[in-house]
Amino acid sequence: GGETGAFVLAELVTTYHPGLPDAQLYQWWSSCAGVNSGRWLRSAVRLPLPPDLCGPTYFFQIDMAFVFQGSICWVDLLTGILICDLFALQEPEFSFIPLPQGRSLHTPNNVRLGLKVQAFRSMGIVRGAIKFVALIGYTETSLSKSSNLVLETWTCHDLREWKKGPALRVGDLWASESFSKMELPRVRPMFPVLCMDEDEIVIFLNDVEYVDKVDRFGQITGRQLVLNGHYVV
User: Fold this and answer.
1) In the structure, what pLDDT confidence band is assigned to residue 34 with cuts at 50, 70 and 90?
2) Can you tell me whether residue 84 is helix, strand or coil?
3) How many angstroms separate the Cα of 214 from the Cα of each of 31, 196, 218?
4) Is 173 helix (H, G, I), strand (E, B) or coil?
């Protein structure tokens, strides 16, 4: 909204009291961004979050952030996107779009702390649209049944509606001719990564096993994790 090279930094801050949905929005406007340039601006805001994301058992958490069509998107990969239009006429405007129906994953806060959400979900801008990718069943499926996992994709062009894209069952990936030719390990894929200008998705395969630890007397003292190979597909 300003001259060439102008930018604004935005930070969303919450506290235990009063807590969500109340928050503070901090903004730093660069020296060429207009009348508010060169200083931090703080404003109290009330976020349009669903009540079940404001506690007491679950709180909206920011896993990643990006800019889409001039608006800042703060993403909770388990629930949805909090959107902030910094350039609204009167003051910054907030909105919230949930994840596709059936794909929100609410967990008690103490369980959320033990999850590496990016291990099975990601989101980003691909060809001018928001794209969401998820390994469905990752948190419920045992390693021995990883073939039942499904890699799903969804796209949102207008900050309102999700459209489902191609999906792939992990068992079908393992059975594909190219996968077999490369002699890749049939292990659970992890950490999906989106390409910004292509439809490809990068996944990681970790070929690991547990082996016995033996002391100098030949006695088994425990087990250790050994990495046999690490693959990017």
Assistant:
1) low
2) strand
3) 64, 48, 6
4) helix
